[in-house]
Amino acid sequence: MMIHLNFIGLLGGNDNTDPLGLLFNVLFFGFFLIMMFYGQKIQGWQASKQIETALDKLKNWNDDCKEILFNQYSKYSNEKDSDKDVKIKLEELMQFVTIGPVDLDPYGIIPKFDHIIDVRDNRFENEVQNIAPKADSIKRQNLENLLEASMAVDMVYRLIKHYLIMGKKSKSMILLMSISMQLTLIMAMAKSYYNAAKAFAEGSPIGDALGPMVVGSLVRDIIINEDVSAIEIAKDTIYQQFEFEGRTIFVVRAKGPGGTVGKPGKAIKKLVEEHGESISRIITIDAGLKLEGEKTGSIIFGVGSAIGGIGIEKSYMEDSSTKNLIPIEAFICKQSLEDAITTMNRSITQSVPKIVTKIKTAIRERTEVGTKVIVAGIGNTIGIGI
Q1: Could you tell me which residues come within 8 angstroms of residue 35 by beta carbon, excluding any fewer than 6 positions away?
Q2: Is the pLDDT of residue 10 over 50?
């Protein structure tokens, strides 16, 4: 009897305790005990359900991308290839991997990466041409971009599926919860690539085409009613030469209007080797990732090479400029990942004339008459002609 009274006292009650309050106290302690012993399992179960819901959405996006991919490639496929043949070839190509060189000793890593990327690009072009032999060179470049966007969605789907299965097999609540906590960012990235696949299928200019669009506008703004010949200086990369207020301007960009970024670093290196000390400045224009809360299309400027990628083209650009002590300027238009790889929106388009004005001001104020200036528009030229 004494033990029973002590237990009631522990629950905060006495002989006059309200039965409803006693019930709530019992439920509270019961819930506390359940969470103490099974809390992690419940959280893991909740995390796995969240991942499964996200995985269903990823699967739908992946299936849609594959359908878009098949529809685009089947338009240009060989008559001898059935729909099944095209789908099998695309499925095989979507598993294509590029293995980077050994980097234990960083010396000489750039030429190794350059070689691997060139081999990869050539192989990709050959495979796309094999599946879609009727497509012209411009359309093939767009089909390559579409394939890469679809591969990105497929990779995210397979990775999330892998970690979900592995988390359930190993009963690792920590693994499931860590994936669940990052799902918002992962899904946002996957959605960006999903929307990018639609843009590449249409062949419309994307946010990353800002650089080529700016330099194209610069040429048209300075050279009115005149044709400026475009000379191919590196693979899928051209330059145009003209005069502006006593300076010689070399405009470098990918060729377009197919989806390619070209080799701007190699192009700049060749121009510097040819013209040497007469080049007084290099100006680069590119899209840059904005922070949350920042305005899309806002413009910032600074110094250094405004160019993304794994660093091969940037290395060539920096090596040639450093050797000749050429200052490098950067103009960047801020965008989100989704803005950069989907159809260009109005706020980005409106930034083009503003950047053109800033480039002309930079040339006037920071270069001398009689010198030469390289202006490089970095980015994907899908939908952007000369």
Answers
A1: 42
A2: no
